[in-house]
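Please complete every field before forwarding. Incomplete forms are returned to the sender.

SECTION A: IDENTIFIERS
Entry label: holo-280
Bound molecule: glutathione
Molecule representation: SMILES string

SECTION B: INPUTS
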Amino acid sequence: MSGTSTYTPPEVWKWDAQSGGKFTNINRPISGATHDKELPVGDHPLQLYSLATPNGVKVTVMLEELLALGKSDAEYDAYLINIGDGEQFGSGFVAANPNSKIPALIDRSTTPPTRVFESGAILVYLAEKFGAFLPTEPAQRAECMSWLFWQMGSVPYLGGGFGHFYAYAPEKFEYPIDRYAMEVKRQLDVLDQHLATQRYLCGDEYTIADMANCAWYGALVLDNIYDSEVFLDVKSYKNVVRWASEIRQRPAVQRGGRVNKAWGPEEEQLIERHSASDLD
Ligand SMILES: N[C@@H](CCC(=O)N[C@@H](CS)C(=O)NCC(=O)O)C(=O)O
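SECTION C: PREDICTED COMPLEX
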């Protein structure tokens, strides 16, 4: 690692809209809507505005798991928000999530409708509403919440840190790639050691903590995201691979993974979902 710096920060940071990298056209240092656009509304109580990224998939997996349990009030309409086209900055979406990021849920079974943003908050909201996938016994609930919040806090180092610098940045910079590769491998080791002694993150019961973590770390060890399988030696985290492979076999996980998917083989895509038969 060379210590030579090629950049001296100015006294006051200024926005360079052309800074490069894959998402340069949607990144902005300001929040709020860029244009007026109402969100579509379907017939079901739950309205989801999302995209089949790992953060989006957490929620569609949860909804499909609830339906598989027979919770018919968990029926939902899922609309695509194309973040590459800036749809997260439409006025309707910003009203649902002032942070302009998918996923956002609106529960129209309440008066007034309840908006929920942040995938972890959506998982907890649905788990409490339907009484499923979140233990009620205090110690088990604490363990489940701990692994859920662990995911929410850890993943920005994986996606925003490692993924950004290894796959999306305009150049390969050694320092950030080194820093974030080390952190992601440390995170994988945390999961691997924990899963060495138990089936799921919180013991024998599959919970929202598994849904949240598997959407990201399962994809990392099974799907070669960021083209990093070899670089990070992900297959060496055998307990994580075992845990993710088992969860992947669940029909609800396979169904949820297809909702709001606008890429990949055509038979795997489902731009919008309005009924169970859309996935059958
Ligand atoms: N902490 C948020 C993160 C959500 C997030 O980063 N969503 C990304 C897609 S995975 C997004 O909408 N990006 C659009 C943007 O940054 O403008 C959550 O878990 O819900």
